[in-house]
Amino acid sequence: MSRKGAFATAALYVCLALGSCEGPREEIVSPEIILEGERTDSLFLDAKPGESRYLTISCGDSWEAVASDPWIILTPSRGKASVKKTVYVTALENGGITARKGSIVFSSRKESATVGICQMSDYVPPVDQPQEPGDTPSDVKETILAWWTVGNNDFMTTWNASKGFCWTEEGYIPADKPSGSKAVAKWNIGNSTADVARTFIISSDLAGHWAVKPTWLDDNLAFSVPLEGAAAQDTVLVRLAIKTNVTSVPKYWTTEYCDASGDWKTLTDYAFPSIKKAVNIDERIVLGNEDIAKGVLDFRLRCSDASVGADGKTLETYAASSALRFCPRGGVFDSFSDAISFTLARKKL
Predict the structure, then answer these.
(1) CA angle at 281 for the pair 278 and 283, rounded to the nearest 5°
(2) If residue 293 lies in a helix (H) or strand (E), which one and from where to where?
(3) Dist. CA 45–CA 101, nearest whole Å
């Protein structure tokens, strides 16, 4: 493993690939702690117990690993000087409604290195929600068709951890709930004048947003959601939120759905009132017989006008920094606030 200069702190790389429990004995004379692998910051674990992640540690001094919380299990938790070890990281079951975070600190007499830990939650929110003004939860049955977690980054990082913690696989974003869902989302580049590689980002603090940049005219995030269990006259409720912290993101975005003939129909036009403020998107799509026959709901959020930025000033072309965020819903504190969700609602008989 090459080194560049003297380390001021430990060089940290997280190993997510399977490996042997014990590496070969090597003559390690440096007192520095070196954790080898693909990442430098965090490990992500499933909600259910049994999954392990791996960190390979080298140190010229004896070392000890201490977890911040009792649900983080380390095997082994200490090692001798100059012996390379692979440490297994597992977690007890997370029965909470949100992901939980912790850390591991590896320490020798002179050095330390910290690894963040994030464990997923399997929580699915209550399905009874009002559908129309005047309805109460007892009037409506609402079931989840597709769910993309955004308030916590566990799902997308686990999905693509071995490829650098982006949130897509060749542009596709799989739904993380319900279990076994075939729903996917895909980012599409819409305008040839901005046909450059997109960068996909998750918030570095493990709890905040996804993002894509740059963004420009006709770029869109399209969702394909199977209509399992749906019937004509049922309503699909769509909830998500967008946000930007930069003025170069286009101001105007539109929601659309694709009918059975393949035509995209406009639902609602949205505009950023300013930067750093979430725009909540709520849509109701009443299903017809043709939609049921098609079997899939195609929905997208598209940049409909790139002539002005989020601050209302004129844009001449796209900016490399124009990052659109998908974030928790502003001012909403219900079960759906931390997700992009598609739910099926019908009146109870």
Answers:
(1) 170
(2) helix 289-294
(3) 10
**Count of CB atoms within 10 A of residue 32's CB?**
19
Beta bridge partners of 266: 256
Rounded to an integer, what distance in angstroms lies between the CA atom of residue 210 and that of residue 242?
10
Cα–Cα dist 52/18, whole Å: 9
Backbone phi, psi, residue 194, to 5°: -125, 40
Distance (Å, whole) CA 12 – CA 227? 45
pTM of the entire predicted model:
0.61
Answer whether residue 223 shows pLDDT above 80. yes
Q: Residue 169 carries which DSSP code?
A: B
- Give the whole-angstrom CA distance, residue 222 versus residue 301: 6
Burial class of residue 331, CB neighbours in 10 A (0-12, 13-18, 19+): exposed
Beta carbons within 10 angstroms of residue 249's beta carbon: 30
